[in-house]
Known about the structure:
Aldehyde Oxidoreductase, domain 3, 3 helices
Amino acid sequence: MVIESLFYLQYVGAKVVELYQGSLDVEQIFSKWLHEEAASNYGAYIPFVGTIRAEDGIEALSFDIYEPVLEAWFNSWVEKAEKLGAKVKMAHAIGDVPVHTSSYISAVFSPKRRVALELIDEFVEDFKANAPIWKYDVKDGKRIYAEDRSTPMSGSGLLA
């Protein structure tokens, strides 16, 4: 299934966060990333895909993103990866994402598999805990803040 979506990049120097309106086209994004890094001589490529599960009667999840803080968070990971000779990439959905489709993709490229395996684990866990993304359940066409599945952000004040 091909899902049409609005795509844009947030450039910060050479660092990129890919944001899409609606569901992510996993195959297209992974293919693009593979082509981008084809000549980079990385020995390991570890992807992670987050898919919306059908549970609690939801028809979709919906996402809001605070882009300036997401960029700063992502850039810190780019720098951490660069120190290890690796590269991180990430794409996320904005707005509604129906069940059984993807809202989040990340990947680590590294010369060595151990670095890639450890970095993707740390990256995904930190993303879940600290990325400035707010999640809503969509039921009967209405967005309902998913407070029970949200993690308060350090220093977010009223947003916590």
